[in-house]
Amino acid sequence: MGYALAGALLGAGREVTVWNRSPGKARGLLARGAREASSAEEAIEAGDLTIACLLDDASVRETLTPVLGKLAGETLVNLTSGSARQARELAGWLGRHGARLLAGGIMAGPPTVGTADATILYSGARDLFDRAAPALDPLGRPHWVGEDPGFAAMYDMAALSGMYGMGVGAEHAVALIRAEGGDVEAFKRDVLRPWMERMLPFTVDGADPGGPVPDESNPEMQATGLENMLATSKEAGVPDELAGHLHASLWGMRRATTAR
Ligand SMILES: NC(=O)c1ccc[n+]([C@@H]2O[C@H](COP(=O)([O-])OP(=O)(O)OC[C@H]3O[C@@H](n4cnc5c(N)ncnc54)[C@H](OP(=O)(O)O)[C@@H]3O)[C@@H](O)[C@H]2O)c1
Question: Is 24 in the pocket of ligand 1 (CB under 6 A)?
């Protein structure tokens, strides 16, 4: 990911200095005009803005601990994925050493970084975002989600949770078809994909566990439908774990029925 981020900045004509724990991975970037620093310290000193994108929060802490002095008075843009709490604690830790954090979450894979399909979430002080946004713009659409440094991670993880939920739902659907000897490819192409595409707006707009049930939807009918799905899954011998979301939805529907 670091390679893709640096590549997008170079593509926009920015001066880029890169550093990676294991040297020698930036050859393609060097050929495009990047400089390679021999240490994290040297990389921080080289530019106006430091962007970190490492494996996890622990690797960021480990890398920054010996060079914290160099970040005093500077802004760190951290695009490493982590939890909201980790981002808040990182902001506090940097703050105690005179540095400010603009926390980020990358809503894109490496091939889409720097394209119109990439969105980068940011959170932290609005003035930090406003100042850094023009420099960060080549990475993907910068989208600020609040002052709380934990919000970028929270939005990122919540959106991923939606994506993985969709993936598990699709896996469950395919497992049913396969278990009953159906044509998986035809099912995906002719039924599942068009159905999921059509249902996406309803799925997102109606997503509010415990929230109000729209008048036009009868929760009792929906609960019965979910029970039919669970029964079908059981009959086909498809593992219950994949249908876990159905149990959770059924619980919500039953509650809504009681509340009516
Ligand atoms: N790839 C994606 O699709 C994607 C999408 C969105 C967000 N992200 C996030 O972007 C971040 C980086 O992902 P990636 O795809 O680049 O992962 P990756 O290919 O596994 O690279 C991990 C990077 O972290 C470095 N690293 C690991 N442990 C370290 C340590 N203790 N000290 C210093 N450096 C360390 C590695 O350096 P070495 O080369 O020396 O091992 C490498 O540069 C992650 O937080 C990930 O969740 C990735």
Answer: no
pLDDT for position 208: 77
pTM, full prediction? 0.90
Question: How would residue 80 be classed by pLDDT, with cut points 50, 70 and 90?
Answer: very high
For ligand 1, whether the C-beta of 1 sits within 6 Å is: yes
Q: Whose CA is nearest to atom 16 of ligand 1?
A: 1
Q: Is the CB of 110 under 6 A from ligand 1?
A: yes
Task: Return the CATH number of the domain spanning residue range 156-259.
Answer: 1.10.1040.10
Please answer whether residues 139 and 5 qualify as being in contact, where contact means their C-beta atoms are separated by less than 8 angstroms.
Answer: yes
C-alpha closest to that of 25 among 1, 44, 41, 49: 1
Which amino acid residue places its CA nearest to atom 25 of ligand 1? 54
Closest CA to 172 of 229, 227, 218: 229
**Residue positions counted in the chain:** 260
- For residue 216, pLDDT beyond 70: no
Q: Which sequence spans correspond to the domains of the chain?
A: 2-146, 156-259
> 2-146 falls under which CATH superfamily?
NAD(P)-binding Rossmann-like Domain (3.40.50.720)
pLDDT of residue 193: 98
H-helix or E-strand spanning residue 213 = none
